[in-house]
Amino acid sequence: MNKIGFNVLAWTAAVSNDLFPIIERLKGIGYDGVEFYLGPQESAAYLRMGNYTKDLGLETTAVMTLGKEDNPVSESADVRQKALDKIKWAVDRAHELNSKIICGPFHSGHTVFVNRPPEDQEYALAGEVLNAAADYAAQANITFALEALNRFECYLCNTMEQLLKLVKAADHPNVRAMFDTHHSNIEEKKYTTALQTIAPVLAHVHISENDRGTPGAGQVLWDDAFSSLAAIQYDGWLTIEAFSRNDPGFANAIGVWREFNDPWDIAENGYKFIREMGLKHGL
CA of 174: how far to CAs of 76, 152, 168, 191, 265, in Å? Predict the structure, then answer.
């Protein structure tokens, strides 16, 4: 059975001691690990969280984003250097969490658009930044799992075909890819084709419903998703990523304007759903 994780963004983007009772309850539900957003907290907060989760017997993964001021595909060399510096900073924080994976769309600035399709030069620029950052990440045995987003959040990578092009441009063993069922539900024609495309470099999976609520309660074609993951013999994390308005600042930043489901409904029923689908399809 694949390891099952839960992204605590359903409660907050901050890494702090306030998460301790939530994480303990997630452990009680049966989760193998928790995923954290790499935000502006100081090193000490990440070290405390890394020690706490380790003592509980939980593993961790991490997720990050970049913006206009540190966009890897910017025409400005100074901005691209800021992107590299920010990713290296994130590697340090992930290492303090004991994470071996940093996932997310940090190939470009989140919701930064240029009113045209992506160009080959932009894949090359992102590849250069990611290659250099991956050299640094390799020292901590950390792998990047880059994420394709839907067209309303990103223009560089919407599909697995584009994401594979980016991973090839980075040309580094520590630069790989992730698959998110929410974004793929919008952008891909078929889960099977998408997963076959990205299979050679797939390192992480987000289980996310079409409305970002409880997995299994919406319109995602879950049998297609799980059977396709089994067909490519995916053996990595199945991590639930769902959102709420518990952290208004983060919710506003990603356009979450209503509650989809209570976070504990998502955590409890989502875990059961993944277990059931995993057993059904041999994951």
Answer: 25, 28, 11, 25, 35
